[in-house]
Amino acid sequence: MDGIKLNDGYIIPRIGLGTFRISPQDAEKSVEYALRNGYCMIDTANVYMNEEAVGRGIKSAGKPRDEFFLTSKIFPNAFKNFSKALDETLERLQVDYLDLLLLHRPYANWKKAYQDLLEAKKAGKVRSVGVSNFTVKQINELVALTGVAPAINQIECNPHCAKIEFQKEMDKLSVATQSWFPFNGGDKKLLEDETLVRIANEHSATVPQVILAYLMQRNVIVIPGSRNPEHIQSNFEAQKLVLSEQEMLEISALSKGNGHGDFLGSLFYRFTPRNYYEKK
Fold it and tell me: Where do the structural domains in the chain lie, given as residue ranges?
């Protein structure tokens, strides 16, 4: 499996299919299509409420388990019963282990949850451990507590929120950077940006392909989500696009700051019911 070598020795593909904001019905079809058409990585989470559908898509695709990389996340509302939450995720996905499990956000007792995550790794239920939306300070605290750095930090990262300096800090800690929402949720200001449109036209490519190529050339792992087979395939083909050093600099110059920060995440956590997954 070609990709980026993590700090624990495992290899993660550079691009995968994300499933955030994709309904169970669409997630099942998208996962099956992606795995049948070149993808080797799927990303989901217990709070997305589509893990069962992702599991069905995986089963329908028929791809051998050792030929694809599967990621899920545990939301803070489930940190208190971490082991139970993980077992339920494995059951919903119909797998014996996850290639990567992330702590979705640094809320509740996230330090204890990280220790539980490391225990899950020892038990063979998880191969690589990671976090999502954590700061440099928080990751340093985890390293000080356990002596183990997460393999990945999944963060908001796109041309309008490039996080270049943040990625450098992650590199110092040997923590790989992964981008959620590389298209910023389909933001028109990003997808219609004049610089990105010009570069896309010069390469006979699409703006989403340019964005993905930009991130991957920075060694940022990407997980664009889509329910459209044509978009899923087009995103995958972004791996063929090579941007010049000048183009990379031009795209980096588009960054406007830190993006949404933690505001949306704090609202999501505050208003997500503790029994969110029971609502089928």
Answer: 4-269
Q: Which residue has the tokens 């997305």?
A: 48
User: Parallel, antiparallel, or unpaired: how do β-strands 69-74 and 41-43 relate?
Assistant: parallel
Position 181 confidence tier, pLDDT thresholds 50, 70, 90: confident
Show the tokens assigned to 73. 């996340």
**Rounded to 5°, angle at Cα 48 from 42 and 53:** 60
Q: pLDDT tens across 198-255, in order?
A: 999 999 999 999 999 999 999 999 999 999 999 999 999 999 999 999 999 999 999 9
CA distances from 141 to 31, 111, 152 (A): 36, 8, 15
- 39 neighbors 65 (Cβ within 8 angstroms): no
Contact assessment for residue 182 and residue 224, using Cβ atoms and an 8 Å cutoff: yes
Give residue 133's pLDDT band: very low, low, confident or very high (50, 70, 90): very high
Query: What's the predicted TM-score (pTM) here?
Result: 0.93
Indicate whether 269 pLDDT > 60. no
Tokens of 38: 């070149």
Active site residues: 48
178 closest CA partner among 3, 58, 8: 3
pLDDT tens profile 77-97:
999 999 999 999 999 999 999
* 4-269 placed in CATH 3.40.50.720: no
Give CA torsion, residues 248, 9, 123, 32, to 10 deg: 50
